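User:
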Amino acid sequence: MSAPVHGARVLAIDGDEQMRRALRAILATRGYDVWLAATAEDGVRAAMDSPELVILGLTLPEDNDVEVCRRLREWTAVPILVLSPRSGERDKIGALDAGADDYLTKPFSAGELLARVRALLRRSANQTQRAPLVRSGGLEVDLARRVVRLAERKVPLTPTEYEVLALLAQNADCVVTRAQITQRVWGRIGPEETEALRVHVSHLRRKIESRTGSHQVILTEPGVGYRFATTE
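Assistant: Predicted structure:
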């Protein structure tokens, strides 16, 4: 049997106490450094400490199935293995589309779990994780907590404004096309969505640039899209 990556940090998020205990027993005895979280919020906070793998059980009481997976994918590329009691194709596709790297149906054997953990850790060994904080001058976008601050004060954003800004911040200093943004935020591409994007970017600029006269954060790339500038 292959040995685990020595001391690899594995975060297990599951609302079922018995499952958390089982995961700890299976992984810790094979040399993994196991962290446990029982809620979505605790899991997201623990993920800020850079685990090398997240095992996500879809039995969390406060979130709809794969919402935690989506939240993690907003700011980290850590491999995610979903454990679910549901074996339907739609459930698997939904989890993978939300950013999961693998899907294992409960109940499962310890051997299969360990094999999938090893495979995910091997594939991710050379990946670079994105920082959950993206800064530009006095502006700070906390992708993990979904909070935006300007000069250390929280900036009130609508959910759509945040989604637009977060997507740009995730791709800081790179151009994101209008089509990419509208597809991600509204799920479609068209003239109405393009106009809505223009309006939301205008609102964002008033909130994060005009308030204290800070440098321009959201730059327009004519005919293409927008770019989040981390420097002046």
